[in-house]
């Protein structure tokens, strides 16, 4: 239900629905997601780490659709720079993700540096 609400524009302004193709089934699968704007780019964070299905699907095929009032074809690339700052910003925006992180959203950046390898970050780009 959250994905439908987010796609229609109901919810936080950073909320959207991510539509990906299943790596095994090939079927479209939708996930509610929070888009993190940071230094002029947009990012998505796998709040459950490598266990997140959309993360596994993106590693198999980086094409997806973001839906927030309209559909946007995008490409997601796993991102390894400035992840600590992006994770901290993510926790500021995504209250529902906070229980899945071992640190507080107000923790020093150094604390986030210690957990960056546990939470995949993907940069959003227009589909080519």
Key words describing this protein structure:
globular; disordered N terminus; 128 residues; 4 helices; 34% strand; alpha+beta
The structure class reads: alpha+beta
> Largest beta sheet: what is the strand line-up?
2-1-5-6-7-4-3
Largest sheet: 7 strands, antiparallel
Unreliable stretches (pLDDT < 50, length at least 5) are 1-11
In which range does the helix fraction lie?
Answer: 10-25%
Instruction: Determine the number of helices (DSSP H or I, runs of at least 4 residues).
Output: 4
Estimate what percentage of residues fall within beta strands. Answer: 25-35%
How is this structure best described in words?
The chain is an alpha+beta fold. It is 23% helix and 34% strand. It contains four helices and seven strands. It has a seven-stranded antiparallel β-sheet, with helices on both faces. Strand 3 (36-38) and strand 4 (41-45) form a beta hairpin. The chain is globular and about 40 Å long. 32% of the residues are buried.
SSE layout:
Blueprint: H1 2-7, E1 15-21, E2 28-34, E3 36-38, E4 41-45, H2 53-60, E5 63-68, E6 70-78, H3 83-93, H4 109-113, E7 121-126
Antiparallel strand pairs: 1-2, 1-5, 3-4, 4-7, 5-6, 6-7
Compact overview of the structure:
With 128 residues, the chain is an alpha+beta fold. It has helices at residues 2-7, 53-60, 83-93, 109-113, and strands at residues 15-21, 28-34, 36-38, 41-45, 63-68, 70-78, 121-126. It has a seven-stranded antiparallel β-sheet with strand order 2-1-5-6-7-4-3, with helices on both faces.
